[in-house]
């Protein structure tokens, strides 16, 4: 196996047939279909839709589904109150207690008299890329096959990973909302779906903009509109 340097010109040649860009299913500013909250010890989830509050607690042993009574304003947030289920949502950053993932809201739930705390709302961007690990969802608008393991890891001022075929690595720097990477080094193998990998190399040959969607995905966007969408691996 050979390790080769991929300068910008070579990367452009590799990806001459890159597929067209496509908007990810949920981009920045788009609202999810329902408000979601979760907590641990014991594990619970809460879904708030326009018509219902759906609570799943005690690792699935307790289920409460009640009509949505409507939100009432409260200090820095809102409340929902029913006979069996009360919810207080406050706009304050929150950690789920099990990982370094952070959410926009702190959530308090009282379910059948049992008080619980957790997090909800949009997933906040990591404070720094260093130490984070991601997996590819799509490259150039084309979904990455689930049977092709992928990764993009940021460690200090180095990045490494695989877009489904060859391993690559190189330096990187972040300036505001712009990521500059490379020159990238990659192994040289032929694999099914290598066109997506080549499309990613083309994308990273120039500075890309960093965007974080409300669902926590990372979107890398080139000057030509090409994108790579990645989900956080915790």
Structural commentary:
α1 runs antiparallel to α2. This protein is mainly beta. The chain has 2 domains: 132 residues, Lipocalin (Beta Barrel), CATH 2.40.128; 89 residues. The strands form 2 sheets. Strands 2, 3, 4, 5, 6, 7, 8, 9, 10 and 11 form a 10-stranded antiparallel sheet that branches. It has an 8-stranded antiparallel barrel with strand order 12-14-15-16-17-19-20-21. It is elongated and about 60 Å long. The N terminus is likely disordered.
Describe the secondary-structure layout.
Layout: E1 3-6, H1 8-14, E2 35-39, E3 44-48, E4 52-57, E5 62-67, E6 72-74, E7 77-81, E8 85-90, E9 94-95, E10 102-111, E11 114-123, E12 133-139, E13 142-143, E14 151-155, E15 158-162, E16 167-175, E17 178-181, E18 184-187, H2 194-204, E19 208-212, E20 218-221, E21 227-232
Antiparallel strand pairs: 1-18, 2-3, 2-11, 3-4, 4-5, 6-7, 7-8, 8-10, 9-10, 10-11, 12-13, 12-14, 12-21, 14-15, 15-16, 16-17, 16-18, 17-19, 19-20, 20-21
Helix pairs in contact: 1-2
């Amino acid at each position: 196996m050979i390790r080769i340097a991929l300068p910008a010109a070579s990367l452009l040649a590799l990806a001459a047939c890159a597929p067209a860009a496509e908007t990810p299913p949920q981009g920045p500013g788009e609202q999810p279909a329902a408000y979601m909250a979760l907590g641990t010890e014991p594990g619970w989830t809460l879904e708030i839709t326009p018509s219902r509050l759906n609570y799943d607690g005690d690792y699935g042993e307790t289920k409460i589904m009640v009509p949505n009574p409507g939100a009432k304003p409260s200090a820095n947030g809102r409340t929902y109150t029913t006979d069996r289920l009360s919810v207080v949502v406050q706009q304050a950053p929150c950690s789920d207690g099990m990982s370094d993932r952070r959410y926009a809201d702190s959530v308090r739930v009282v379910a059948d008299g049992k008080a619980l705390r957790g997090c909800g709302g949009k997933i906040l961007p990591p404070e720094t890329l260093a130490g984070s690990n991601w997996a590819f969802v799509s490259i150039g608008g084309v979904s990455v096959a689930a049977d092709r393991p992928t990764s993009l890891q940021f460690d200090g001022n180095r990045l490494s990973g695989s877009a489904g075929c060859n391993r690559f690595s190189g330096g990187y720097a972040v300036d505001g909302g712009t990521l500059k990477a490379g020159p990238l080094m990659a192994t040289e193998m032929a694999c099914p779906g290598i066109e997506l990998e080549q499309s990613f190399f083309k994308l990273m040959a120039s500075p890309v903009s960093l965007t974080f969607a409300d669902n926590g995905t990372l979107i890398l966007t080139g000057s030509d509109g090409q994108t790579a969408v990645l989900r956080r691996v915790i």
